[in-house]
Amino acid sequence: MTPASSDRRALLISVAASAGFAVLALAWGLVTGSQLIVFDGLYSFASVGLSLLAVLALRTARKGPDQRYPWGREVWEPLIVVVKAAALGGLCVYALAGGVADLLGGGRDVEVGWAVIYGAVATLGGAAVTVVLRRRRAGGSDLVRAEAAEWSGDTLLSMGVLAGFVLAFVLDAAGRADLARYVDPAMVVLVSAAFLPVPARLVASGFREVLTMSPPPELSSRIQAVVSAVEDEHAFTESFVRASKVGGRLDVEIDFVVADTSAVQTVRGFDAVRASLQERLAELGQPVSMSVGFTADRAWAAR
C-alpha cells in the first residue's frame, strides 16, 4: 500500500468512526437530556465534514506540481488543518458559553445511569480508533497526525466524562439530586475548555506552514547538522540554510561559499555535493524540494 493510499484509508477510518459517534451521541444526548453528550455529537458531526475535506485536500496535495502550482499543492494540507482546527475551536467556545449559562441557571437534569453507559462506550470506542490511527501516523501526512492527536484527546476527555457521570450517579443515589444537576453543565465547561488547546496548537502549527516559516526546531537542527557536515567535508568557507515545511514537503535552499582551498571547484564536483545532500536529507523521512547554490562571493549567499 502506498503512503498516499494509507493516509486516505486512515482518514476514512476517522470519518466513519466520527459519523458513528455523532449519530450515537446526538441520539443518546437527547434521550438522557445531557448537554455534554449533545456537544460530543455536534463535535463529531463537525469532524465528519472537516475530515472529508481533509481527504479531498490530501488527494489534491498528492497531485504534484503543474503549470498552476509550480511548487506543488502541499500547502492545502496545513490550510485544511487550520480550517478544521478553527471550526472545532469555535464549537468549543460556543459549548463553553452554553455550559456557563446552564450553571448560572441552576444546572440540568440528566438520566445519569444512561449517561454513565455512554461514557464507557465513548471511552472504549475512542481508544480503539486512537490505536488504529497511531499505528498509521508513522510516516503519514500531517492530516493523519492531526486526526490521531484529536482522537487521543477525545479519548482522554471521555475518561474524564465517564468519571463525572459516575460522580453524578453517586450523588443522585445519595439523595443529592440538587448537586447532581450541576455535574453535566460543569463537565461541559471543563471538557470544552480542555479541548481548546488542541485546535489552538493545530492552528499555530498550520499557520507556520501556510506562511512558509521555518520548520520545528528539532527538524531545523537536523537539516543544519547535515549541511554543516558537508561543509566541513569539502572545506567550504561558509554555508547558508533556508528551510520551511509545507504539508508533507520540506523545502530547503542551501548556499555554500567556495574558497580557492575548497576540495570541490568544478561543476561535476558541485553536482556530486548536491547528490550527497539529497541522499542525506532523504533520511529525514520527508519528500525534499532542494536548491543548492555555490558562489565565491559571500554577498550572493547571504542575501
CATH class of the largest domain: Mainly Alpha
* N to C succession of SSEs: HHHHHHHHHEEHEH
Helix content: over 70%
- Based on helices, strands and strand pairing, what is the structural class? mainly alpha
Average pLDDT reading: 84
Measured between the Cα atoms of the first and last residue, the distance is 43 Å
The CATH homology group name of the largest domain: Cation efflux protein transmembrane domain
The CATH architecture designation of the largest domain is: Up-down Bundle
When the domains are counted, the total is 2
The portion of residues forming beta strands comes to 5-15%
CATH fold naming of the largest domain: Alpha-lytic protease prodomain-like
Over all CA atoms, what is the radius of gyration? 25 Å
The main sheet comes to:
3 strands, mixed
Q: Which regions contain 5 or more consecutive residues with pLDDT less than 50?
A: none
Q: Numbering strands along the chain, what is their spatial order in the largest sheet? A: 1-2-3
Principal-axes shape call:
elongated
Our count of helices gives 11
